[in-house]
Design goal:
InterPro entries: Chalcone_isomerase (IPR016087), Chalcone_isomerase_3-sand (IPR016088), Chalcone_isomerase_sf (IPR036298). This protein has helices spanning 4-20, 73-77, 95-109, 112-117, 119-130, 167-178, 187-191; strands spanning 25-28, 31-34, 36-39, 42-54, 57-66, 83-89, 140-146, 150-155, 158-164. The protein has 195 residues and is an alpha+beta fold.
Length: 195
C-alpha cells in the first residue's frame, strides 16, 4: 500500500516530468521570453536578456537568441545560422520614434562606408517602423536573421517590411546594443550572458 507521502512524491515527479518538455520562460521587465525559440527550422537558445533604460525610464526588454551561446560581440556577429532578437515594449512609442532610435544606434556603431553599403536596407528598415502608427506597452517585435531569406521582422507575429538580404545589415542592427557605443552600456553584458 502506498503512503500519502509516496503518492505526493509520485505526483510531484509526474508533474516535473510533464513540465520538462515544455519551453521554459524568463521574465524581464514583466514580459515573458522563452528559453528557446525556432527560427528557420533551427532551435535557438536564449543568449541573454535585459532592459533598455533611458535616464530612469524603462523603454523595452530585449532578448537575444543564438544557435550556441556566445559571450563576446565578435562571437555573436560571426555566429553561423539563424539568429533572433525580441524586443518587448515597456511603454507606448510611435513607430517613427522606434525607427529614429534604431537609426541613431546604427549610426553610432557603424562607419560611413559600412552604412553606405546598406543604404537601401536602412531606408527599408526605417520605413517598416514608420508604418507602425503606435506601438503599445507589451507589444513584441521580433527581428530574425534567416540564411537564404534575410532579416525578417514581425510585430506581434505579423510581418512588417520585406526581408533584407545582407547579414552585414543584421549585424549592424545588433551593434545598436553590442557595438563599441551601445545605446545602454548595462544592457550589453546582459545580452552577452554576463549580467
Amino acid at each position: 500500500m502506498k503512503t500519502p507521502t509516496t503518492l505526493r512524491w509520485i505526483s510531484g515527479l509526474a508533474l516535473a516530468l510533464s513540465l520538462s518538455g515544455a519551453a521554459m520562460a524568463i521574465e524581464v521587465g514583466g514580459l515573458k521570453f522563452d528559453d528557446t525559440v525556432k527560427v528557420g527550422g533551427k532551435e535557438l537558445k536564449l543568449n541573454g536578456a535585459g532592459i533598455r533604460t533611458r535616464i530612469v525610464i524603462k523603454v523595452y526588454a530585449l532578448a537575444l537568441y543564438l544557435p550556441e551561446k556566445k559571450d563576446t560581440t565578435v562571437g555573436v556577429l560571426e555566429s553561423a545560422g539563424p539568429r533572433r532578437f525580441t524586443l518587448g515594449l515597456l511603454r507606448e512609442v510611435t513607430g517613427d520614434e522606434l525607427g529614429q532610435a534604431f537609426m541613431a544606434g546604427i549610426t553610432a556603431n557603424t562607419d560611413k562606408a559600412e552604412r553606405s553599403r546598406f543604404v537601401n536596407q536602412l531606408a527599408q528598415f526605417g520605413e517598416a517602423f514608420v508604418n507602425i502608427p503606435q506601438a503599445k506597452k507589451g507589444d513584441m517585435i521580433t527581428v530574425d536573421w534567416i540564411p537564404d531569406t534575410g532579416t525578417v521582422m514581425h510585430l506581434n507575429g505579423k510581418p512588417i517590411g520585406e526581408p533584407l538580404k545582407d547579414v552585414g545589415f543584421y549585424n549592424a542592427v545588433l551593434k545598436i546594443w553590442l557595438g563599441d557605443k551601445p545605446v545602454d552600456s548595462s544592457l550589453k553584458p546582459q545580452l552577452l550572458g554576463k549580467g
